[in-house]
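Predict structure. Chain length: 138.
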Amino acid sequence: QRVAFLAMKAKRKAKAAEAEARKISLSEKKAMEAKLKKMKEDERRRNAAQLARKRAEEYEIKATKAATRLQAVARRWAARRKLKRLKEKKRLEEKEHAERVEKLRQYQASAKQRNMEDQLRKLRRQAAVRLQAAWRVY
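Prediction complete.
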């Protein structure tokens, strides 16, 4: 009886130890699963962050290219505006020059006219003086 009792006691202890071991292994299993889950989540986060960085770099490259294109377009427009301004300035200068030349020509023509009129008056006066002298002689 004593042996049977000890055997049963040993069996009970073994069962309890087994249950305890199962409990421990269960909690270890849960801890391992939690750890694995956390690692997977960390990996996923790292991948997402890496992807985000890669996308940001791609967008930055695209933005730089677009900005470069826009700057080139802006430079072309500025050059075109400058050329237009210079052409307009040249046209105005030519117009002003033509006006000055025309005024000068008109002034010279009127001066010539006045000169001719003065000469004509002078000649008439001389003719009148000669005519009077001729009448006096006659």
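Summary: The chain has a mean pLDDT of 92.
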